[in-house]
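User: Here's a protein and a ligand (FE2/S2 (inorganic) cluster). What would the complex look like?
Assistant: Let me lay out the input and then the predicted complex.
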Amino acid sequence: MSAPHLAAARPTTPGTELGTPATDVPPGTVPAGPGVEHAVGRLEDIPMGEGRAFVAGGVPVAVFRLRDGSLHATQAACPHAGGPLADGQTDVDVLVCPLHLYAYRWSDGAATSGAAPLRLFPVREHDGELLVTV
Ligand code: FES
């Protein structure tokens, strides 16, 4: 686990797509609308296998860098009772909230317990920048 840190979104580097609608939404992602991509930090801000808290366009998010190299982004607060999801334990399949240990699938955000699902956000890396669409 790690201590969360917050980083304000900042403009993307030249050539990125800040302000453009998201077009390639990964399976399981539940976008709130057309979405806008925001640079939230650097890939190296997140140790392999861990998550960190950021703010993307005013939306608190938790971004995870999994050991298989994939990136995932979700809401920062657990839908159960607001637990800090960036401090959760994860593998390539699930994220476990540190507060009450509910598990959520990365594939679709569903809770394995049947609780309310996570909201997932598209995330990618470009030139070392983490780009989250909210
Ligand atoms: S706050 Fe996350 S499982 Fe309860």
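Summary: Residues 1-29 have pLDDT under 50 and may be disordered.
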